[in-house]
Amino acid sequence: MFLRFNRVQLLIMKFYKKPSEHFIEVSLRYKNLKQGEKTLILPVWTPGYYKILDNPAHIIRF
Which domain holds residue 24? Predict the structure, then answer.
């Protein structure tokens, strides 16, 4: 998935290396962001699922 916001370019790639294990590998690359700290925010709500989830708790090897 390739996204563009003004001059910032964002490339998100998803890999299902072992679908039977229900894990997904995600790669995030960006261009034209200013120097300094970057903040990644993950949603806690999923459309169609009316429950607040703790998605970051399931992230491994970050």
Answer: 2-58
